[in-house]
Amino acid sequence: MKRLFYITATILVIAAATVAWYGYSILFKNNIKGETSYLYIRSGATVESLLSSADSLGTVINLNNLKKAAKFEKLDGNVKPGRYRIKQGMGNREIVRMVKYGWQTPLNITLAGNIRTKEKLAGILSRKIEADSVSMLAMLKNDSLAKSMGFTPETFIGMFIQNTYEVFWTVKPVELAERFKKEHDSFWNEERRAKAQAAGFTPQQITTLASVVSEETNIKAEYPVIAGVYINRIKAGIPLQADPTIKFALNDPSIKRILYKHLQINSPYNTYKLKGLPPGPITIPPVAAIDGVLSYEKHSYYYFCAKPSLDGSHAFASSLEEHGKNARAYQRAISKLKM
């Protein structure tokens, strides 16, 4: 009897060990090889499409074991869309539960450079997330949404501040807009709002002016000076006469020289014909330009033009006569280059 007991016990131990090892192999044993990769699961995905996507990564060691783990964890009907980081050392249970409970890995969206149109912004926003540029553009052109957030169709693009933002791959267009509204409100803190009010402008107007200033120069140190020029002109009732607004009105940023024919365009962005600020930003300005406008220099300049040094810097003038001299000096420098 004792012998039978020991034999039975041994068999049970072996069986339990076998089951445990099998369970460990299926659920917990490393099933990923190579470098870290990302599994993208679209909305409405099934277990089969999940397995297909995982197989296409080329990092899953045993796809059949992953399938068994999915069945054990009752993943069918519970696949959550998202972007999931898959790295060496992960077992099937960890992988399956990530997808089952939607434990996504966030990503970064960066707004930088010249973003002049809603179409370009839509492309940038949709480049890294599930939503496509068509749905993103529809959000940006949703006038009711813009109004609900305190913007006009023209100023809505100014809600998107240049920076890097951490989001989930599955974020919806409206959710993204809400996120940017929150970031916008955080950016426009009490200090910045106080500076805008002291200058006699709203945050949206400051953003619009900053968009013009940032298109006039690549030299950050000039932002406050050029802002001061435009604010002087606004207060004096003189049109801004800003060439970048004409390029925007013509939808042609490649124009090198503004001609008389260009100035005849009928557009609310024609600052040669109309006084004051244009109805909205002509680009999404960098933060440095916004802060440059908020800290604008109080001086007596009403004019500026490129310096004859041709280094991108500008010469400023208080009178039209002085401005004419600066402009002629610049033209002479350009003429020498053509000789």
Explained architecture:
The chain has 339 residues and is mainly alpha-helical. It folds into three domains: 26-101, Dna Ligase, domain 1; 107-187, no CATH class; 190-299, no CATH class. It has 14 helices and six strands. The protein has a two-stranded antiparallel ribbon. A two-stranded antiparallel sheet has the order 3-4. A hairpin with a 7-residue loop joins strand 5 (303-306) and strand 6. Helix 5 (118-126) crosses helix 6 (133-140). The radius of gyration is 30 Å and the shape is elongated. The N and C termini lie far apart (114 Å). Mean pLDDT is 91; it is low at 9-24.
Main beta sheet: 2 strands, antiparallel
**Rg from C-alpha positions?**
30 Å
**How many β strands by DSSP?**
6
Low-confidence stretches: 9-24
How big a fraction of the residues is strand? 5-15%
- Outline: elongated
The structural class is: mainly alpha
What's the average pLDDT? Answer: 91
Order of adjacent strands in the largest pleated sheet: 1-2
Number of domains: 3
How would you spell out the order of helices and strands? HEHHEHEHHHEHHHHHHEEH
What is the terminal separation in angstroms? 114 Å
Continuous helix count: 14
Helix content: 40-55%
